[in-house]
Write a structure and sequence with these properties.
about 150 residues, 4 helices, single chain
């Protein structure tokens, strides 16, 4: 009778360490690519930068170990990003709206806004950087497991 004893302890240690190394490097790559995507979203020319608030409040944050979120933290960011349907604008206190039309001041109790088209600056930046992240993760996997 022949008995063969196989000890996989060393292999188990190596593969565990390789997994930890991959996770650390992948997390760093995600942070770098997310920061780059946020910077790209800030540079967009899809909308006018009238007050600077939307650009100043465009950033990213980690959500989970392998997930980051681009975000724009202004109350009107979703209106710019997703657009709006036609809607009526009225005052909150029952007063009058004051605005200029062809150089003349106009007063109205309400106006019909035609809506705005979507300008998905966050999604465009995320999509453009997704391929970069995939490539970086592939390089990391090759270097760690190669």
């Amino acid at each position: 009778m022949i008995r063969v004893h196989i000890d996989s302890t060393a292999f188990d240690r190596e593969i565990t360490e390789a997994g930890r190394r991959f996770e650390r490097l992948a997390s760093q790559a995600l942070s770098q690519v997310a920061a780059s995507a946020a910077a790209s979203a800030k540079r967009t020319d899809l909308y006018k930068n009238i007050t600077g608030k939307l650009r100043a409040n465009t950033t990213w944050k980690p959500r989970t170990f392998f997930h980051a979120q681009l975000q724009a933290n202004t109350r009107y960011a979703s209106y710019v990003h997703d657009g709006t349907k036609p809607h009526v604008i009225t005052t909150r206190d029952g007063g009058m709206l004051h605005f200029q039309v062809n150089g003349s001041w106009v007063r109205k109790s309400s106006v019909n806004h035609p809506g705005t088209s979507a300008r998905p600056f966050l999604q465009i930046a995320a999509d453009a950087h997704e391929a970069i992240l995939a490539s970086r993760l592939e390089q990391i996997a090759t270097s760690v497991l190669g």
